Amino acid sequence: SSYRVGIVGATGAVGQELIGLLLSRSFPLAELRLLASARSAGRQLEVGGKKLTVQEAKPEAFDGLDIALFAAEGAIAKALAPEAAKRGCLVLDKSSAFRMDPKVPLVIPEINLAATRNHAGIIASPNCSTAIALMGLYPLHRKFGVKRVFFSTYQSVSGTGADAIDELEAQTQAYVKGAAIEKKVYPYQIFQNLIPHIDSFGADGYTGEETKMREESRKIMGLPALQVSATCVRVPVVRAHSVTVNAEFEQPVDVAAAREVLAAFPGAQLLDDPANKVYPTPLDFSRQVKCGVGRIRRDTAFENGLTFWVSGDNLWKGAALNSIQIAEAMIREGIALRPRELATA
Ligand code: 2RA
Fold it and tell me: Residue 47 half-sphere exposure, CB side, CA atoms within 13 Å?
């Protein structure tokens, strides 16, 4: 069968990737409805050789849809996702609005697809840095049991959005021309620099991004007591995030065993041959379905420690692809798109 799919935030960086991936993955579409703010309504987008007109995202815009892919900021998801679910849509939301809501499954299909069986109309996708980090950590946890983990991230500017991509480009051009470098999106120059600040600072000195990595990793892996400490840094890379993971396990983990586990995990591509300078880089893993894992070595700071490096596309596995993979897997596994109570209504 085929499905009537709506995209909320269709004109944004992630929305554009959703359109491309639905087409390139031949998602069974009966209809594709592009929804965005009133400001963008009326714009025409070229989709698969057809011109589609963007409609305003408002409650009645969800009538008749089976799936609503939300790629908008939290406030819009908070306002409209319940409206869409009420109208019988399965909402797949990439924002942080519902991720920690106990009634909302937070899902990476390769890890906890079963959690989708208890949805009440809304399913959340994790923060991009969490999804990418867990493509390396989760298969190792499943085999060796993780106790404590440190994340250090190297996050591309596309995670902020199209305006940040433009900012890096403009600062690069200004540098080449010897012109003044302007800062609009970030508090510091991002060109030739690093900014250890993503999202907002909490009272404990951790940023929202760092708190998300801790809380979301615990929820997705079902490890409420997992010890996590993250440092999330913006780097002058256009696309794809990278993460250094230092993890302590219940038992010693040798590199060969770790490589075997990662090579067998569907969400990861093992790329680990340091003698030949082979390891993942963000440039190589942009627009890749899998996340690259390499630099695997015993961690010298832990008993039973292992450290490794992951690079993954933050717009794909970190956002658009993960949402689409949830829908694909639910359809493949015959998991109800509508919550039980609605289905009988
Ligand atoms: C970022 N993870 O990279 C956040 C949102 N995509 O800015």
Answer: 25
